[in-house]
Amino acid sequence: MICKSIIFDLDGTLIDSESQCETAWKAAIAEYRHVMTSDFYATLVGLSVEESATLILNNYPIPLSIDSLAKILTSKWETAWQNGAPAIPGMIELINLLDKNGILWGIATSSSRRYLDTMLAHHALVERCAGSAAGDEVEQSKPNPDVYLLAAERMGVLATDCLVVEDSVYGVTSAVSANMTVIAIPHTYTLKSDFSHAHFQLDSLTELHNNLNKFISL
């Protein structure tokens, strides 16, 4: 299917922030004398902080409520990203190509609106993004479809006309449930994940850039 617009996930897809988040959250868990492994952290990629807190408490005996742990994780994470996070290789070139061809693009993330706005500003993308939605703006974030449907609504496009680029299983599930066409581009933390439910799988944003006309009507 040739799509008309594109919606990106943020962390691990456009922004290389997962290692910062892992370090921050491992530090939070270490304060309660537990060691979070990288393999366990990988199971949280794509989830909201509340859903992540739930899984953490299901696996580590920490004497906190979900809300309390979520606040601690958020605080640690906010400290880590105050100075921004680097772009995934190929991101700027791909965005430039989309803009050059008048292709609307947006973002749907499980992260907070405040974080999303900070990253857009850090990479000078605020005026270029046609619409975006954050995890704290919907009742249920990924793997539910709400955040993708909200992003499409704000872009003024039909969900069925959207191509989605994701790096997590939860994100792919979310976009597929929204009746969107999905490309999985695994990140370091999701290389071992099963993306068989995605419509396509590529290795990088650069590969998408070089083959964009196969997915988007230019």
**What Rg, in angstroms, do the CA atoms define?**
17 Å
Question: Which spans of ≥5 residues are poorly predicted at pLDDT below 50?
Answer: none
Order of helices and strands: EHHHHHEHEHEHEEH
* Strands, total number: 6
Give helix % range.
Answer: 40-55%
Strand content: 5-15%
Write out the strand line-up for the largest beta sheet, numbering strands in chain order: 3-2-1-4-5-6
Distance between the termini: 13 Å
CATH class value of the largest domain: Alpha Beta
Description:
Strand 4, helix 8 and strand 5 form a beta-alpha-beta unit. With 218 residues, the protein is α/β, with parallel strands linked by helices. The protein is globular and about 55 Å long. Strands 3-2-1-4-5-6 form a six-stranded parallel beta sheet. It folds into two domains: 142 residues, HAD superfamily/HAD-like (Rossmann fold); 64 residues, DNA polymerase, domain 1.
